[in-house]
Amino acid sequence: MRARRGRAGQRGSQSVELVAALPLLGLAVMLAWQCIVLARQQIEAQSDARELARQAVLCSRAAPPPTLAGVDPGAAGTVSIGAVPGPGDLVRVEVRLAPESVLPGVDGGPGSAVAPRAAVVMRREPC
Amino acid sequence: MLTRRAGARGAAALVLSGAMGAVITGGVGAVDAAAAVTAQAHAEAAADAVAHGTAVFLLGDAHREQLSIAVQAGTPCDSDARDSPAAGPGCAGAVQAARQLAAQNAAVLARLVVGPDPRDMQEGQGAGRMLVEVHVFVPRRLPVLPATCPTSPGSGADLCWVDAWSAAQGAG
C-alpha cells in the first residue's frame, strides 16, 4: 500500500516538473524565434540604408529625394540623411526600423534599444 | 525498490539536463548565425560604399590623369604593394580616401587596387577611366567569449571577422 502510494507520488512529481519546464522551453523557443526575426529585420535595414544612400548621393537633378517607402514599401521606421563633417563630400544615411515582436505584450518603436538600425556613408557624386 | 526510484529520478534529471543543454546550445547557435548573416550584409554594404566612394574621389582628383597613365603603363596602385608610391600622389590619396570611407562605415580596409578600365586600354588612348577594387573586413560579434577576438583582421581566428569584396568602374 505504501509502495503504491510512493510510486503514484513519484509519477505526480514528474508530471509537475514537466508542466513547470514546458513554459520555460516555450519561452526559450520564442526567444530564439525573436532573435531570427530581428536578424532578418537587421538585414532589411542594411539593404534599405544602402539603397537610400546610393540614391541620396546622386545629383538632385537626376533623382527626387529618396524615402523609405520608395525603397521598401512594407517597412515602418525612420530615416535620417545628413552630411558627414570633415574632408570630402560624404553623406550618411541611417535607417531605424520598428522591431517586429513575436513575444506577446512586448512591443517597441524605432526608438527602442532593440530596433534594427543600419548606417551607410557614401561619397556624393559630381553634379 | 529504493534503487529503482533513485534510477528513475536520475534518468529524469539526465533527460532534463540534456533538454536544457540542447535549448541553450540551440539558442547560442541561433544568435551566432544571426550575427554572422547581419555582419556579412554590413560588410557587403561597406565594400560597395568604399568602392563607389573611391571611384567618385578619383573622378574629381587633381592627380587623376597622372594616376590613370601610370596604371595603364603597368605601375601598380595597390595598398599591399611596396612600389605603389611609384604611381604618384593620386594613388596615396585614393588609399587614404578608401581608408577614411571604410572607417566611416565601421569597416577596415584590407586592400585597395586601382587599375586601368579595360574600355580605355586602347592604342593611342591617353588618360582614361579607372577600375577600383576593394576588400574590407567587418567585426563579427561572437556571442561566446567576444574578448578573445583580435583587434585587427588577419591576426587571429577567422571567426571574429567577415570580409567582402566590391568593385566600381568610372562612369562614361
Number of domains of chain A: 1
Radius of gyration based on Cα positions of chain B: 25 Å
**Sequence of secondary-structure elements of chain B:** HHEHEEE
Total DSSP helices of chain A: 2
3D shape of chain B:
rod-shaped
Structural class of chain A: alpha+beta
Write down the overall mean pLDDT of chain A. Answer: 84
Strand order of the largest sheet of chain A: 1-2-3
What order do the helices and strands come in, and which of them pair?
The complex is a heterodimer of chains A (127) and B (172).
Chain A: H1 2-56, H2 68-71, E1 77-83, E2 90-97, E3 117-123
Antiparallel strand pairs in A: 1-2, 2-3
Chain B: H1 2-59, H2 64-72, E1 77-78, H3 89-104, E2 108-116, E3 130-139, E4 161-169
Helix pairs in contact in B: 1-3
Task: Give short descriptive properties of this protein.
heterodimer, A: 127 residues, alpha+beta, three-stranded antiparallel beta sheet, 2 helices, rod-shaped, B: 172 residues, four-stranded antiparallel beta sheet
Protein model, in words:
- The complex is a heterodimer of chains A (127) and B (172).
- With 127 residues, chain A is an alpha+beta fold.
- Chain A has one domain (2-123).
- Chain A has two helices and three strands.
- In chain A, strands 1-2-3 form a three-stranded antiparallel sheet.
- In chain A, strand 1 (77-83) and strand 2 form a beta hairpin.
- In chain A, 24% of the residues are buried.
- Chain B has one domain (13-169).
- In chain B, 48% of the residues lie in helices and 17% in strands.
- Chain B is α+β, with helices and mostly antiparallel strands and 172 residues long.
- Chain B has three helices and four strands.
- Chain B has helices at 2-59, 64-72, 89-104, and strands spanning 77-78, 108-116, 130-139, 161-169.
- In chain B, helix 1 (2-59) packs antiparallel against helix 3 (89-104).
- The chains are: A alpha+beta (127), B alpha+beta (172).
